[in-house]
Amino acid sequence: MANTFTNGRRYHCLAAAALLTVLSLGLIPNVSAEQAPAPPPPTCGSDSHGGCHNRAEALKLKLIAIAAILVTSMIGVGLPLFSRDVPVLKPDGKVFVIIKAFASGVILATGYMHVMPDSFDDLRSMCLPEVPWRKFPFTTFVAMLSAIITLMVDSYAMAYYKKINAEMIGDGGANSQAKDAVVGLEQGGTNPHAHCGGGGAIEGAKAQLLRHRVVAQVLELGIVVHSVVIGLGLGASDNPCTIRPLIAALCFHQMFEGMGLGGCILQAEFGLKLKLIMAFFFSATTPFGIALGIGLSNVYSESSPAALIVEGLLNASSAGLLNYMALVDLLAADFLGTRLQGDMKLQTWAYVAVLCGAGLMSLMAKWA
Length: 368
Hints:
Elements (H helix, E strand, L loop, with lengths): L1 H34 L19 H27 L12 H30 L6 H4 L4 H33 L5 H11 L18 H32 L3 H29 L3 H24 L9 H31 L2 H4 L2 H21 L4
């Protein structure tokens, strides 16, 4: 009897323990799930300041950013323009070729590592409707169209030039003003091997010079659009923790990008006035964007659907333009040209410079 009672108690104890184990296995996940709430949805149309929001401190940093970026941009774009005074840095020298290859790598990485990812982030944001923004790759589509349009501008500009040039040749001596214009182009003094754009298929120094000018102006257009968007985002932010590292990154970004643009402006042989205007526009666009962002900080929100769409489409357009210009008008034109094709050692160093420029600019993508 006692053994039966003892066995019964043991059975009940084991059954109770098994029941508690089953219940605990079922309840523990529920308790843990209750203790770990789901992440909140993104705040759209209003800025989420987090724990680092200080409007007064952010304004001081923005004013510092305006001055610092303006100065570094002027240094970057100005260095190539004054390189004619330094014999080793003349456009027909090997050092200039290597520096230009480095700057071309910077521009290539700007399009792929800075501008295009920003466009992806904007146009695939959770703040936008799933249809159509996350159902169709608008970034790559707009970048593709932008590259095609850039090619059209290149092609039509050169075709128009060749037509005008043929008409001037056919006029004989009738149009003296046209002849003077051609002579002025010929006196530009560019080296036919020192390419800023293609030109191997287009004969004559005049056509090469015009090619340099088209490339310089189109390249500046793409850089200016991107610079304004960057400055607008920085100027609208009231987060000092974000602004501090961004200032240093943008200073390096603008300096290296300015070196690439300055090299093209130099080879375009513009007059002094136009050189200064182009250098000023490049240097002032990011500070202008910051100032605009400060003025609109009360009404502008980076996470609003309208801002995301506009910035995303502008960044995609700029990415397509910069990628085309870097690959076709800068890198391919130089590396497939007679200058580098005839000097394998210089070509190797130029490739190293491209990789260094692209790698350094890719590293900057961690902060800007």
